[in-house]
Task: inverse folding
């Protein structure tokens, strides 16, 4: 099993998602839930393509952290 950080951003009327560890692997959707489903499928297809091309599956090296900042 592989785990990848996925960034989901709210855009103008929809959502978009990408993984910093999988360049070019992106997804969009009308809702956050739809975007999550689409991104999960996009990652599966991306990994299948890498395997078919005999390319290694990259190691996940990205992480996220929230910081609290007082104004």
Result:
């Amino acid at each position: 099993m592989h785990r990848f950080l996925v960034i989901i951003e709210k855009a103008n009327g929809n959502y978009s998602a990408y993984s910093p560890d999988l360049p070019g692997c992106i997804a969009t959707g009308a809702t956050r839930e739809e975007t999550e489903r689409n991104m999960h499928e996009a990652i599966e297809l991306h990994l299948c393509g890498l395997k078919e091309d005999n390319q290694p599956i990259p190691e996940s090296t990205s992480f996220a952290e929230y910081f609290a900042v007082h104004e």
Remarks:
- Residues 49 and 55 are 8 Å apart (CA to CA).
- The first strand starts at residue 7 and ends at 10.
- The chain has a mean pLDDT of 96.
- The helical segments are 32-52.
